[in-house]
Automatic annotation (TrEMBL):
Listed name of the protein: Peptidase S1
Lineage: Bacteria, Pseudomonadati, Pseudomonadota, Alphaproteobacteria, Caulobacterales
Low complexity: compositionally biased ranges: 258-268
Organism: Caulobacter mirabilis
Entry-linked Pfam families: Trypsin_2 (PF13365)
Region (Disordered): 250-274
């Protein structure tokens, strides 16, 4: 039976928020990764866009867990998440050149089980391996303007077409464009490929193509106008950020993002409390 990456990622994706004390809150998206320690001990890592945490000045944020009751119904159960020390210094790990952050968390057992394996994130050659390019459809999960799919707090699933070329290598093209509307609250959400049947170059049979391509980190703006194009940071940099928790230093910084003529704006934002 085919596995469903969409459902697995929905379960692993959470809303991140922090009240700002004036009736508003800042909201973003994150997702959980199962990333064991070097000695094999289980470990759950939350990843999101670094600017999501940057815009949360207090020591604690809230992470939007969902709990399934004995009758099968789900309820939203946000819990405190410490993101800064007592001096309000960040305790998350930040990638040195990309808008990616990672932090080890103690998730409820149900959520620890929902964390996706690190191996599901695209490798540097994944796009080339499957001949992915402009026009291919990818999915994105998030909480646009803090909106969830339902009262249980599940993320909203949307789709868009790859809008840039080429996609590899990530050392030269660390981000790519996705044609869909980006809203405050989408930052940090996973972008993934979930195609039921695709024939690789030179192959005679079609196969499933399912992997996490990257993380939504920005939107494209030009002269103050939103172009309804999202900027996706390659999964390679999520992998590198998780590895940094264990002291692994990423390789030298890649070249600047493209297109160079566009300005970009962070897609997290401030929202009125419901």
């Amino acid at each position: 039976m085919a596995w469903d990456l969409s459902v697995d990622l929905i379960k692993a994706t959470v809303q991140l928020e922090q009240p700002l004390g004036n009736g508003t809150r800042t909201v973003g998206t994150g997702f959980l990764i199962d990333a064991p320690t070097p000695d094999g001990k289980p470990r759950t890592v939350l990843v999101t866009a670094a600017h999501v945490f940057d815009r949360m000045p207090s020591v604690e944020a809230r992470i939007g867990y969902r709990i399934q009751n004995s009758d099968g119904a789900w309820r939203y159960d946000p819990r405190p998440l410490t993101i800064r020390d007592e001096a309000k210094a960040p305790i998350w790990t930040r990638h040195p050149t990309r808008d990616v952050a990672a932090i080890v968390i103690q998730a409820p057992e149900e959520f620890a089980k929902a964390a996706i394996p690190l191996s599901w994130l695209a490798q540097d050659d994944t796009f080339t391996q499957y001949a992915l390019g402009p026009g291919d459809e990818m999915m994105a999960l998030g909480f646009p303007r803090g909106l969830a799919a339902n009262q249980a707090g599940f993320p909203i699933l949307r789709s868009g077409r790859v809008a840039s070329y080429p996609l590899a290598p990530s050392s030269v093209f660390p981000t790519f464009l996705l044609d869909f509307s980006v809203f405050p609250g989408n930052s940090g959400g996973p972008v993934f490929m979930a195609e039921g049947a695709r024939r690789r170059p030179g192959a005679t049979e079609a196969q499933e193509v399912q992997f996490v391509a990257g993380m939504l980190t920005q939107q494209v703006e030009l002269s103050g106008e939103r172009l309804e194009i999202g900027i996706v940071t390659h999964a390679r940099f999520i992998r590198e950020t998780v590895a940094m928790i264990d002291g692994v230093i990423p390789p030298a910084a890649p070249t600047p993002d493209l297109p160079a003529t566009s300005t970009t704006a962070a897609s997290t934002g401030t929202h009125t409390e419901p």
